[in-house]
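Re: [help] complex structure
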Amino acid sequence: MESDTAVNVTGVIKRFDEVLAVNNLSLRIKAGSVFGLLGPNGAGKTTTLRMILRIMVPDEGSIEMLGRPLTESSQDRIGYLPEERGLYTRMKVREVLLFLAGLKGLDDREAGRRVDEWLERLELNQWAAHKVIDLSKGMQQKVQFIAAVVHRPPVLILDEPFTGLDPVNAGIIKDIMLDLRQKGTTIILSTHRMEQVEMMCDSICLINKGQSVLDGELAAIKRSYGKNTVRMEYEGDAGFLDQPQVVAAVNHFGAVTEVKLCPNADSQEILKAAVARGVRINRFELVEPPLNDIFIEKVSGVAHA
Amino acid sequence: MHKLWLVIKREYLTRVRTKGFIFSTVIVPVLTIGILVMQIVTASRQTGRTLNIVVLDHDGNLASAVIKGLDGKLKNGQPEFHVVQTLERPPAGTEDNLRAQVLNGQLDAFLVLPSKVTDGEVSAEFHTRNPGEVTISGELNHAVSNAVIGERLHARGVDIRDVAQVVEEVGLKVIKVGAHGETEEKGQTIIIAIVVGMLLYTTLIIYGVATMRAVMEEKTTRVVEILVASTRPFYLLAGKVLGVAAVGLTQYGIWVTVAALVTVYGAAMASMAHAGTMPSLHLSGFMLGSMLVFFLLGYLLYASLYAAVGAMVSTDQEAQQAQTPITMLIVAAVVLFNIILRDPNSTMSVALSMIPFFAPILMLLRIALQTPPFWQIALCLGILGLTTAALVFLAARIYRVGILMYGKRPSLAELAKWVKYT
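Output below.
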């Protein structure tokens, strides 16, 4: 049982002066899964990640990685792409990567081999001898990504891995993430982009004010909410949605409209009203609520409690 | 420990490879040598040319003595003056004639020795087209004066050679009494002391500030977040401090070697050029050893302080303000130079040299001037060592927290909290 847990956070508390940054947080991250760590700004995500990375020490509670308490050498088995990117701008790309790989415990030869491999894979090999400052933002991001994975860490922490990347490069990084996961890497993904979480994560933990407010397998969480949302496309007047007994909330995205149903309401009522008013329905689909809505509900719900 | 080594290596190599380092390390000695060589070359090649002159002796009793005195040689061995003609009791109008010759370049100059010049009522005159050329005027003046004085003495029945013997001055040598024997003092002790003190002063500031900038660079570029996820903050701090120190030692090593070569070469050139002997600035092994020890301890002390400042600020302006008190401490040591120079063993001097922030510079100054009692050096090193250790510890604690904190510079109370964080 213990062996299939990559990271086990138990009852962790971290205070900064009077502020409780992390309050009695427990997480179990399954080995080989993609785990989403979500939460509003200032919820304590970065502090939690920093404690897993052994940058900070919890005031109370314990953290285990791969079945063992964190030690200095556990830093060599974890890769990190911080949200605030940073590299030595005046060093050459290959030298920066060799240095960072060395700090993760690779010897010179092995580091050289793997850095070259990765530069090639991410189409950066002709930039190897250039200074980091000469690279575009997107290229610097890819260099930073290499620094996070070059030592083949069993646990990989990615904080907003796709920001600043064009769709092509985002696709490349996504493919690499899936490939790494296939090979058994546990990925902890921290992001505000809920559609990415929905597409990539096996399980999630949503934290707010340092506490877990929602936690578990993504599919199970969504199932528990039931199919209480209608995703539709229509042509005509929106007046047919004005049914307080049936429609709890409407979210227009332009082409697509999401309608949240009241508890026990029948979605057929909406169709009937549309037909009665001569509105043309092009799409009508009963779905689980988007994670975005669950996030907002949970976070604002706790905030009001 | 391997990771510490990697941090030191990166810090060292990236610094040593910068244009700034290569420039300051290579260009400074090259310029120094260049200037020295130029001086030696111009000094040895300062040939000038032989001046063709005519001597007009109105009384006819001085010319031969003056010409005898004009025996100066140029660097190339040629005489400075060539007397084309001596005219005793010249007829009126001769000077106009000679003036015309000087103007059209047939003659370089003419020297007029009027009658009554021995009475001191009139001056001798040197008519030349180019007075700037007369760096020789000293010699000319000497020759004329000697001739006149000789003539006056002769009139009184005294031989000038007797007088020269009688008025010969006695030299005075200043000898420094030291533990390792006596050395002739030509002002070199004070020169060495001041040079060594200033050297330490500039080094502490330059490399201290360099350490601060290195810490700030990692903080502002946010590289530090990946670094602390890979190794201990203490290794990062120690790596910075030691890496920059190694850069400093490399630079000084290069300069000292070059300076030694230049001194040897320069001395050889100087003796070849008969330009007189230079005062020998000899540094004893004890002095060099003390310099190294006090530089290292002083650098560790100040670099820790500068590094802590680098870790607690987020912008250049904040850094500028926060480093000022530290820099002032180093400057204060230099301001206190005079007290030590006046009397290196006064109670005041001893007390000041024990204060750890001044000790690296002031104790070294005292050692250079007059070796203090052993117990004082030992006590000083003890205080300095303990203070440095304490400051390194504090700096490491501040560094660890500071590098991950952005925003407003912390107050002293907040700093105290940082030190206590686990």
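The mean pLDDT of chain A is 89.
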